[in-house]
């Protein structure tokens, strides 16, 4: 029995194209596109880009000022449960910040870090509002704080610009090195 090289190569190339093409079509139309529709439908999302890996779904978001991050995360986790399928949801929010908002956050950061470390999350809104009373230039800054099981969400806005900060509630711990 003599094997002909051209038919064997054509058959293997056609099989590989069919296999990888169907895998790509499944990921695009059954996972990526429905999740993109869910995220884009949420009020306050200007633009989104979704990257799906084996263990993680990354949402790169462009949000309008005043968008509630906790509600967005809850909405995506609920409505996109089948597309996320047990993967970790990670947010990457585009910042449309200003020098004023950056200064505000720089002055609040130490107090917020202290409240996060001591797990006294109720102090965070008070510390952020205290800056408005202490410094007159921050009177137009709106600071919103939300919390869920995994993160504390801080949104700073002055109407046109916005800054979104996501603080994980579980602090990163340093492990022991194997070669130490």
Describe this structure in words.
There is one protein chain. By secondary structure, the protein is an alpha+beta fold. The chain has 2 domains: 87 residues, GMP Synthetase, Chain A, domain 3 (2-Layer Sandwich), CATH 3.30.300; 70 residues. Helix content is 46%, strand content 23%. It has 5 helices and 6 strands. The protein has a 3-stranded mixed beta sheet, covered by helices on one side. Strands 4-5-6 form a 3-stranded antiparallel beta sheet, covered by helices on one side. Strand 5 and strand 6 form a beta hairpin. It is elongated. The termini are far apart. The model has no long low-confidence stretch (mean pLDDT 88).
In short, what is this structure?
This protein has helices at residues 5-41, 69-79, 81-84, 99-117, 123-134; strands at residues 45-52, 56-63, 88-93, 142-147, 151-157, 162-168. With 180 residues, the protein is an alpha+beta fold.
């Amino acid at each position: 029995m003599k094997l002909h090289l051209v038919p064997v190569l054509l058959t293997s190339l056609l099989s590989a194209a069919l296999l990888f093409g169907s895998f790509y079509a499944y990921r695009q139309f059954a996972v990526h596109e429905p999740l993109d529709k869910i995220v884009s439908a949420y009020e306050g999302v200007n633009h989104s880009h979704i990257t799906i890996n084996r263990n993680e779904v990354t949402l790169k978001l462009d949000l309008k000022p005043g968008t509630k991050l906790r509600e967005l995360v809850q909405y995506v986790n609920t409505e996109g449960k089948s597309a996320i399928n047990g993967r970790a949801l990670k947010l990457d929010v585009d910042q449309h910040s200003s020098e004023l908002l950056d200064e505000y956050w720089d002055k609040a950061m130490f107090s917020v870090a202290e409240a996060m470390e001591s797990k006294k999350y109720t102090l965070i809104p008070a510390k952020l509002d205290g800056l408005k009373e202490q410094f007159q230039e921050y009177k137009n800054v709106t600071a919103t704080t939300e919390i869920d099981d995994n993160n504390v969400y801080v949104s700073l806005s002055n109407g046109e610009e916005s800054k979104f900060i996501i603080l994980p509630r579980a602090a990163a711990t340093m492990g022991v090195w194997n070669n130490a």
